[in-house]
Every structure is written in structure tokens, then in C-alpha cells.
Automatic annotation (TrEMBL):
Domain Major facilitator superfamily (MFS) profile: 183-603
Transmembrane segments: 118-143, 233-255, 267-288, 294-314, 321-343, 349-368, 434-455, 461-484, 491-509, 515-538, 550-571, 577-598
Subcellular location: Membrane
Topology class, membrane: Multi-pass membrane protein
Species of the source: Aedes albopictus (Asian tiger mosquito)
InterPro entries linked to this entry: MFS_dom, MFS_sugar_transport-like, MFS_trans_sf, Sugar_transporter_CS
Keyword Ligase appears in the UniProt entry: no
Full protein name: Major facilitator superfamily (MFS) profile domain-containing protein
Region Disordered, annotated ranges: 29-50, 72-100, 608-639
Membrane among keywords: yes
């Protein structure tokens, strides 16, 4: 049985904050009217009931007539969504974020951020840990080590320093003097080299190599002999992973849009785990390189898709906060990786250890929720309802009966032409796209250029890594506070310029001041680490909803190009020690300056101007947010209201809900 209540109001009558003014004047309440079924009036009368059947009521529509020139804000003050009255909002929703432009119909039922979102955003951010391990592991698995020509088996007891002084007179590492080693013994070895002019002997290439094992144990370089004429292969090995990561950064967005965030994430996590374990067993360099391409693709896909899923579980300002905090495990993983490498001292054992956490995370596959926003966009309402029911129950929200009828794809997401990558380069978005390409390229170039080559800076690699991870963790946490105060663009600009200037300053540090170089490197790592946490969120807000995936994908493409360049950029240190770091600093400053051409669409000033501009042509009192208007249209589609004549408007309410706006 569906009942329609009609309350006629004139210009002098107003609705009180707790009901209708007629109630206080002695007229029966709306509940009383409904209980009578056919009698009772309120200032204009009850127009009747439409008894359809005897089943329990589903929705009741209270049609409140008001003349079109009336001020909607006078009806009880602030406008609220029609579903707010039946449950208490969580504390996170009382701070003003409820009117955020990032709200939607799902937010109305589960809130911006609650216990359910906290639980899953925490678990999903853990996927960043094994991903970072695989990205960062070559810092230890392929660390530079001192090496020399191997001693013959029967001369291994000769002291190392004596061997290198006599057979490597020029300090070379790839050749030694040509002597009749098979005829020499430990007893006459010194006598032979004392009787000949070592400088006149021919230099020949080494048949094998020995490596310094005081700091590192078995590494990829020692396993496959990637030194001397094969040293350039190490750059190709590193490029294999980064090329796969570049493809994953670009392609994972499309894959997750087609097949869903949850299954895409878990499938790539499975590929990552299987490939990670296989890497620990390979014995050929070719197979190792092929597997590195696969694990690079899977690892970056896991990083991207887990980020998308995390931010789609929340809304409002919490998308910015959670989007930044999602990168915090990356910095923590650097510290953990240093500890694992320190205690394992073997690249195969380390490979098994860093792969195990990712394999353990696969246990949550069955329980992991799909993105409710993705389900809504795809029209999979039954699955969406199950997630909303669970989230609302955990967050303490009471859902109105039949609410699933309002879960429809917003018209703005289904109407219009299908967007393509070419839309990014149309005049409206051309400047934004070009700037974001430069910014992404600069951030990724300096971030991975520093992160993956900490050993090139000198000093203890383990200590450098722990310091770098620690300062980046602090920077990420502090950036949240600063971002909420100053906005994303200002932070990105400051961080990128500071990082760039610190890189350039390294050229002016006198030799022997290693601690100054390390300090500047930590400043760079701190600044660019915060940039790496902010840039995905900033990019997403530069484009409308229908183009956000394309915009972030274009940024990831520029990041992929930077990833491929990084290994070869450090080869320039053979020209000048600080040339690679200088190039990275220049690109960072260029990216920071380019940001001045964009607007921070999350800043309070921009949002105030945007709201005032968009509301200039609106009628007085139309203070309902965009999401509320969309939700109202969804309600009206299922429960249409009668046409109103004489310029009178009606306002719909769900049954058992508060009737004040």
C-alpha cells in the first residue's frame, strides 16, 4: 500500500526544524494522518490514499507544496539528503565533508569513512609492501661489489692482497698479467714474480672472477658474471623490470575497468607471487630477464589497482587522505627490505622471503570486496547491495527498506559520447595533459633514480636505505596535514623545487664531505617521496569523472618512459659523477614550475569560486548539493510524483524519514 500525503502551505507558513508548523498549531501530525487512512487534513487537506494492496508499505511520498518563488532554505534551514534522518551519521560525516562534491549515492548509505572502510583500506594498502620489495630488491640483489680475476684452484691459499698486487699491477679488475700459473705453486709463486718485470708481461682477460663478500653475499651480478664486458647487461636486466612496470602502469587501468578491481588485483597478485618464487630457481640470465618483465608488469598493476580500489571505497576528503596514506607502506617497505637483505645476504633467499608476504595476502581473495563505485557504474546492483548491507552494518548505519531501487548509474556517467585518449589533447584539456606528462616524468625520474641507485651515493647501503625510508615515511604523514591546509598544487610545487635544488647543490659539495651528500639525498628522497604520494590524487582531480582514468593513465605512460630511462641515465656518471643527479634535478624543477599553469581544484578558494559561479544562475535557496540532486532524481524515477500546477513544487521523502530539510 503506497500512500501520498499532500500538505498545502502558503507563503506565510514555514516548517519548523522538527516537523510541520501545522503540527504545533493543533493540526494532527503526518503520522496521525497516515494512521487514519482517509481522514484528517493539514491546512489544505488530505487528498486521499491510493490503496494498491495490503502488503506492508514500501515507500511513502510526502508531497509538500510550495510556491516556486519561495526560499527552500526557509524550510528548516540546511538542505539534507532525504535518507539522512533514519540513522546517525558517523563522526567523520559531521565535520562538513558531507557536502563535498565527491559525495554520491553510496556515501549516503555507508558514509565517507567508517570502520568498514578503515578495515579494508588498511588490508589493501598492504599490497604495496610485496610490490615495493620486488621493485626495490635489485638495490641489494645487484649491488656493486669489488671484484678481481679469480685465482686458480691450486693457488687459492695465496693471500688475496698478494695476488692482486702481483697479478693486477695497474689496479685493473678485468685482466691480469699472463703468467704460467699452471706451473706455479704456492711455494714458488712469489719467487717467480720477483724474477720478472711484471710491467713487461702481457695483460689477458680474466677466465673467472672473485667478489668481495664482506658486505654482500651471492648476488645476481656474481651469479651471472655481469661485470667487465657483460656489465652493460645489468642495465638491461633492470630495464626489463621497469619496462614491464611501464606496461602495467598503463594497461592495468583498462583491465580493471573491464574485469573489476577485486579480481584484477588478486589475479596480478597471484602472478606476482608465482613469478617471484620462480625467480628464485632460475639458472639462466635469459629466463631471469623474461621473468623480471612479467613480475614488473604484475607488480606495477598490483600497485595501481590496489590504489584505485582503496580510494573508491571512501569519498569526500578521505580520498585525498587515504590516497596519500596508501603510499606509506612503500616507504616502510624500504626499511623492511634493508633488514631482509642484511640478514639473508643471498639474492635467492631474499627473493623467497620478499615473495612470501604477497602470497599470504592472496588469502583475502574470497572476502575482499569489489569497488562499490565500479559495481554501480556497471549496473551490478545485487552485488552492490550485498556490499552496502555489510558496510552499513559494520559502520552502524540503518538502511531504509527498498533502498536498492535508488542505486542507478548517474546520468552524467551514462550519457554523452564515449571518451578516448584523443580527448586529453583537445584544446580544453591540452594544457592540463601536457603539464601532467611533464610532472609525472620528472617525479618518477628523480624518485626511482634516487631510490634504485642509493648505492651510487656512497656510504653504507643498508643505513642509507633505512634513513631514506624513515624520512619518506615522515614526509608522507606530514604532507597530509599540509595538503589539507595549503592544497595539493602548492605542496607539489614546493616539494619538486626543493628536490631539484638539492640535486643541483650536490655539484658544489667539495670532495670528502660524504655526509653532506647523504643529507642532501635524504632531502631529495623526503620531498620526492611526498610528491609520489600526492601526484595520483592531484591528477585525478584535474579531469572530469569520465576522463580520470585516461588522465591518470597518461601520467603513468610518462612515468613508464621515465622508468625505462632510469637505468641508462646512471651510465652518465662515467662522464661526470653528478651528471645523472643534475639532470634529475633539472627535470624536477621544470615539473614544479609547470604546475603553476594549473589550478588546484581541491583548494578552498577554487571550490568557493566554483560553487559561486555554478550557483549564480540558480534559483534562490537551491543549496542542495549535486549528489543530492542526482539521488533525488533516482528516487523520483521509481516513485514519480504528481505534476504540480500553479508554480508549486513538491519535495519527496522516504517513509519513516525526517520530513524537515
Amino acid at each position: 500500500m503506497k500512500r501520498h500525503y499532500f500538505v498545502q502551505m502558503n507563503n506565510q507558513q514555514r516548517m519548523s526544524p522538527v516537523g510541520v508548523s501545522a503540527v504545533s498549531s493543533g493540526a494532527p501530525s503526518l503520522e496521525a494522518i497516515g494512521s487514519k487512512g482517509g481522514g484528517g487534513t493539514v491546512n489544505g487537506g488530505y487528498d486521499g490514499t491510493d490503496d494498491v494492496d495490503q502488503s506492508p508499505p514500501d515507500y511513502g511520498i510526502v508531497n509538500i507544496y510550495q510556491r516556486s518563488n519561495g526560499d527552500l532554505s526557509s524550510l528548516g534551514g540546511k538542505s539534507k539528503n532525504m535518507y539522512e534522518g533514519s540513522h546517525e551519521k558517523s563522526e567523520s560525516d559531521k565535520g562538513g565533508s558531507g557536502a563535498d562534491e565527491d559525495s554520491d549515492i553510496i556515501t549516503e548509505y555507508i558514509g565517507h569513512y567508517g570502520l568498514w572502510q578503515f578495515y579494508w583500506t588498511f588490508l589493501l594498502c598492504l599490497f604495496q609492501i610485496p610490490t615495493t620489495f620486488h621493485i626495490f630488491c635489485l638495490v641489494f640483489q645487484a649491488a656493486n661489489r669489488d671484484f678481481w680475476c679469480a685465482r686458480p684452484a691450486h693457488l687459492r691459499s695465496i693471500p688475496l692482497e698478494l695476488w692482486r698486487n702481483l697479478t693486477h699491477p695497474n689496479g685493473g679488475q678485468c685482466s691480469h698479467v699472463n703468467a704460467p700459473y699452471q706451473q706455479l705453486s704456492v711455494q714458488n709463486f712469489t719467487d717467480y714474480f720477483g724474477s720478472v718485470n711484471v710491467s713487461s708481461l702481457e695483460q689477458v682477460s680474466c677466465n673467472g672472477f672473485e667478489f668481495d663478500s664482506r658486505i654482500f653475499g651471492q648476488t645476481v651480478i656474481t651469479e651471472f658474471g655481469l661485470v667487465c664486458d657483460r656489465a652493460q647487461m645489468m642495465s638491461i636486466v633492470e630495464m626489463c623490470f621497469l619496462a614491464g612496470a611501464a606496461m602495467g602502469a598503463v594497461g592495468s587501468g583498462w583491465i580493471s575497468d573491464q574485469f573489476g578491481r577485486r579480481h584484477t588485483l588478486m589475479c596480478f597478485a597471484l602472478i606476482q607471487a608465482v613469478t617471484g618464487f620462480l625467480l628464485g630457481f632460475v639458472t639462466s640470465l635469459e629466463l631471469y630477464m623474461a621473468l623480471r618483465v612479467i613480475i614488473g608488469f604484475a607488480s606495477m598493476s598490483v600497485a595501481v589497482v590496489s590504489f584505485v580500489l582503496v580510494v573508491e571505497l571512501v569519498s569526500g576528503k578521505y580520498r585525498t587522505i587515504i590516497g596519500i596514506l596508501n603510499i606509506l607502506p612503500v616507504a616502510i617497505s624500504y626499511v623492511l627490505a634493508a633488514a631482509i637483505a642484511f640478514f639473508t645476504r643471498d639474492w635467492r633467499l631474499m627473493q623467497f622471503v620478499i615473495t612470501t608476504p604477497g602470497a599470504c595476502l592472496l588469502l583475502m581473495w574470497y572476502w575482499c570486496p569489489e569497488s562499490p563505485r565500479w559495481l554501480l557504474a556497471k549496473g551490478r546492483i545485487d552485488e552492490l547491495k550485498a556490499i552496502i548491507d555489510q558496510a552499513a552494518r559494520v559502520n552502524g548505519f540503518k538502511l531504509p527498506p527498498g533502498y536498492e531501487k535508488t542505486l542507478q548509474v548517474p546520468e552524467t556517467e551514462t550519457s554523452g559520447d564515449v571518451v578516448s585518449v584523443f580527448d586529453l589533447f583537445r584544446m580544453k584539456f591540452l594544457r592540463t595533459t601536457l603539464v601532467m606528462l611533464v610532472v609525472w616524468f620528472g617525479i618518477v625520474l628523480i624518485y626511482f633514480g634516487i631510490t634504485l641507485h642509493l648505492s651510487n651515493l656512497g656510504g653504507d647501503i643498508y643505513l642509507n636505505t633505512v634513513l631514506a625510508g624513515s624520512v619518506e615515511s615522515i614526509a608522507i604523514c606530514l604532507s597530509i596535514v599540509v595538503v589539507l591546509k595549503l592544497g595539493l598544487r602548492v605542496n607539489l610545487f614546493l616539494y619538486m623545487v626543493v628536490a631539484g635544488l638539492s640535486c643541483i647543490l650536490m655539484n658544489f659539495i667539495p670532495d670528502g664531505n660524504l655526509w653532506v651528500i647523504i643529507s642532501l639525498a635524504m632531502i631529495v628522497k623526503c620531498s620526492v617521496g611526498a610528491c609520489n604520494a600526492i601526484i595520483p590524487t592531484f591528477t585525478a582531480y584535474q579531469y572530469p569523472t569520465t576522463m580520470r582514468n585516461l588522465g591518470v593513465g597518461a601520467g603513468n605512460f610518462a612515468a613508464g618512459v621515465a622508468l625505462i630511462i632510469v637505468p641508462y641515465l646512471w651510465l652518465l656518471e662515467h662522464v661526470d659523477q653528478y651528471l645523472p643527479i643534475t639532470i634529475m634535478g633539472v627535470f624536477s624543477i621544470i615539473g614544479g614550475l609547470a604546475l603553476l599553469a594549473l589550478k588546484d581544484k581541491l583548494s578552498k578558494k577554487y571550490q568557493q569560486r566554483h560553487r559561486s559561479g555554478s550557483g549564480s544562475g540558480a534559483s534562490v535557496g537551491s543549496s542542495v548539493t549535486r549528489s543530492t540532486d542526482d539521488d533525488t532524481r533516482r528516487i523520483e524515477k521509481h516513485f514519480p510524483r504528481d505534476n504540480v500546477e500553479n508554480g508549486l513544487s513538491n519535495i519527496g521523502f522516504a517513509q519513516n524519514e525526517s520530513i524537515f530539510l
